[in-house]
């Protein structure tokens, strides 16, 4: 894949001009997408919306067995591996969330307006402009709006998509959220654990002295929060959910915690997942040793409830070089980074892949205050268009 991004950028001038002129229209599309509920696991309504829009410019738009929307712009080079452009459909917000938009000048606010209504808008815009462009691709470009990217969706849509495609892929570009400088070259791996602690329970006065699962869960949280974690390679360990008990005046029979471990190194993920499990079991052993004689011991069960694979692309790979060139072409400074996105799956399998923002600026992601500022948002679309067209003609 030769690094011809600068030349491609110049040749795409008509498409870039159209994108700049369509700024208001594309912002309206972004707002419309954000207004269609798409909680992880139930993205059907948004998938139908995006499929209908893609069908206006591309033939044979399909929704696959994982709920992904898939469409193709056929390339001229028979048998050449495809370029994949993907953006996830789902959001972290449950059904019933107020998705209405408020506007303040160039800033719009709504849950999911940036992550990932912006990525989906860019997906549609790129499909439309590449179809209309005189720069015809040699490689087929596959556009995919994927399911299950957020939370315990566990990259379900991306896994299904790349299982079906195999490893013969020219390049993958994931469009995730706003921005026009970041180039994700390292896939941040994740392990997610749910641990349950079970005991006999009893009256808070009469049975006092039996081991208390909530006390142990609290001790585990304190211990994990105090871990001395390495900075190179960086590891994070977070207890993000906790619960248990049924009444204020009853020693609970059960408590549970959910723990997340993150790293860009698969071996470190494995090592720290085991370390976390060992510390939790040690906390249970301590509580059992201190319980009133003759009372039943606590038991602990732990299961992995999510896994996002780690991986990376060589920073010198032609796809990364093209992304750097395209970023410089729009007057921005490229920033290589690590993140957890749909690109994790192909990176882990050795397929050339990056993730990028889709233009504009945003903040307060994954909160009800999420906002998007579309000032100079066309620059991010120009960058994405250039990267994809460069890969498809390499």
Summarize the structure.
By secondary structure, this protein is α+β, with helices and mostly antiparallel strands. The chain has helices spanning 5-11, 13-21, 23-34, 44-54, 117-132, 156-165, 213-225, 266-290, 318-329, 344-348, 377-392, and strands spanning 62-63, 69-73, 83-88, 102-104, 107-109, 141-146, 171-175, 182-187, 189-198, 202-203, 236-244, 250-251, 254-263, 299-308, 311-312, 335-339, 353-356, 361-363, 371-373. 48% of the residues are buried.
Question: Over all CA atoms, what is the radius of gyration?
Answer: 24 Å
Element-by-element helix/strand order: HHHHEEEEEHEHEEEEHEEEHEEHEHEEEH
Percent range for β-strand residues: 15-25%
CATH fourth-tier homologous superfamily of the largest domain: Zn peptidases
Largest sheet, if any?
A: 9 strands, mixed
- Count of domains: 2
Helix residue percentage: 25-40%
Assign the structural class, choosing from mainly alpha, mainly beta, alpha/beta, alpha+beta, or little secondary structure: alpha+beta
Give an overview in words:
- Helix 1 (5-11) crosses helix 11, helix 5 crosses helix 11 and helix 7 (213-225) crosses helix 8.
- This protein has 394 residues and is an alpha+beta fold.
- The termini are close together.
- Strands 1, 2, 3, 6, 7, 8, 15, 16 and 17 form a 9-stranded mixed sheet that branches.
- Strand 1 and strand 2 form a beta hairpin.
- The chain is built from 11 helices and 19 strands.
């Amino acid at each position: 894949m030769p690094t011809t991004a600068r030349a491609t950028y110049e040749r795409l001038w008509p498409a870039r001009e159209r994108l700049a002129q369509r700024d208001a229209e594309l912002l309206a599309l972004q707002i419309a997408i954000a207004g269609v509920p798409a909680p992880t696991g139930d993205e059907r309504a948004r998938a139908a919306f995006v499929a209908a829009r893609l069908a206006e410019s591309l033939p044979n738009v399909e929704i696959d067995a994982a709920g992904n929307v898939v469409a193709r712009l056929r390339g001229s080079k028979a048998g050449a591996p495809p370029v994949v452009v993907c953006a996830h459909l789902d959001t972290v917000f449950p059904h019933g969330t107020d998705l209405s938009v408020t506007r303040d000048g160039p800033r719009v606010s709504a849950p999911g307006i940036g992550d990932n209504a912006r990525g989906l808008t860019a997906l549609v815009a790129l499909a439309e402009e590449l179809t209309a462009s005189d720069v015809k691709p040699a490689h087929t470009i596959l556009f995919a709006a994927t399911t299950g990217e957020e939370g315990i969706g566990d990259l379900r849509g991306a896994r299904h998509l790349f299982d079906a495609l195999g490893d013969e892929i020219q390049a993958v570009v994931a469009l995730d959220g706003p921005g026009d400088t970041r180039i994700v070259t390292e896939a941040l791996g994740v392990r997610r654990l749910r641990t349950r602690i079970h005991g006999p329970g009893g009256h808070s006065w009469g049975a006092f002295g039996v081991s208390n699962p909530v006390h142990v869960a609290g001790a585990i949280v304190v211990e994990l929060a105090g871990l001395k974690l390495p900075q190179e390679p960086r590891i994070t360990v977070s207890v993000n959910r906790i619960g248990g008990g049924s009444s204020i005046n009853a020693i609970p029979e059960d408590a549970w915690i959910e723990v997340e471990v993150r790293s860009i190194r698969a071996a470190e993920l494995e090592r720290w997942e085991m370390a976390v499990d060992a510390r939790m079991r040690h906390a249970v052993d301590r509580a059992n040793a201190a319980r009133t004689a003759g009372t039943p011991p606590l038991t602990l069960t732990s299961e992995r409830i999510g896994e996002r694979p780690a991986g990376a692309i060589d920073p010198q790979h032609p796809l990364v070089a093209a992304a750097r060139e395209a970023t410089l072409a729009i007057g921005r400074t490229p920033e290589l980074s690590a993140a957890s996105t749909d690109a994790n799956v192909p990176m882990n399998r050795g397929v050339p892949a990056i993730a990028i923002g889709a233009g504009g600026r945003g903040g307060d992601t994954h909160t009800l205050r999420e906002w998007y500022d579309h000032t100079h948002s066309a620059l991010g679309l120009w960058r994405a268009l250039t990267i994809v067209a460069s890969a498809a003609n390499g």
